[in-house]
Structure formats: C-alpha cells, structure tokens
Design a protein that fits this description.
The protein has one domain: Sandwich (Immunoglobulin-like), CATH 2.60.40. It is of the alpha+beta class and about 120 residues long. Strands 1, 2, 3, 4, 5, 6, 7, 8 and 9 form a 9-stranded antiparallel sheet that branches. The N and C termini lie far apart (about 50 Å). A hairpin with a 2-residue loop joins strand 5 and strand 6. It is built from 1 helix and 9 strands, in the order αβββββββββ. The protein is about 15% helix and about 50% strand. The protein is globular, with a radius of gyration of 18 Å.
Length: about 120
C-alpha cells in the first residue's frame, strides 16, 4: 500500500510543472510574458501588433485598455499606441518584425496601473 501511495504522489508531483507550463503557452502563435496584470501574448505582424491578455491561460474580460508598443531593431525604434479592440489590444502601423526583434509593451488594463512587458520575437 505504501509503495502505491509513494508512486501516486511522485507521478502527481512530476505532472504539476507540465500543467503549470500550459498556462503560459501561446494560444495565438505569439510570445507570452507573465506580468502583474496577467499573461500578455504578443502577436507581431508587419502591419499589426496584437496583445492578448489572459489569467493563467483563461481569457480576461477587458473593460478598458490602453498603452503603447515600442519595436526595437538594432538602433531603429518604432512606437505605436495600443487601443482596445474586442478582447485584445492592437497597434497598427509599419513594423519591422523578424526573429530577434525586441518589443516593449506598456499597458494599462481595466483601470489598473500600467505594467511593462519585454518580448523577443522568435
């Protein structure tokens, strides 16, 4: 009986990191960063940057949201305002996005203080 209990406890402990990691997996093909405001997933395209917000893998209801993104390519930087569009924040513009591009997103959600998240595109 003790061996069975020990085996069950060990297998449960080994599964916990896998379950926790699923909370921070990209759901929209972007890069995820955990912040105090929630998990932010950045999806970057040449003409559109989207920031999806979730709470441990579950979508968050956004009643308000603002901010800005700054895209860094070497010495070149591009800034654009973020606006709430449905259940995500979006910035439109002309962005140079490639592997290694760094993006700083500063967002304020649901009237709470702003948080900053740094992303490196893959």
């Amino acid at each position: 009986m003790n061996r069975f209990l020990l085996a069950a406890m060990l297998s449960g402990m080994l599964a916990l990191p896998v379950l926790a990691a699923e909370d921070h997996m990209p759901k929209h093909g972007g890069v995820v960063v955990e912040t105090k405001a929630g998990d932010l997933e950045l999806v970057a395209k040449a003409n559109l940057i989207q920031v999806h917000v979730s709470d441990h893998g579950k979508p968050m209801k956004l009643t308000s949201g603002t901010g800005k993104v700054t895209v860094f390519n070497g010495a070149e930087k591009t800034e654009a305002p973020l606006a709430l569009v449905g259940d995500k924040l979006e910035a439109k513009g002309a962005f140079k996005v490639a592997a290694g591009t760094k993006v700083l997103a500063e967002v304020s959600l649901n009237g709470k203080p702003a948080v900053a998240a740094r992303f490196t595109l893959k």
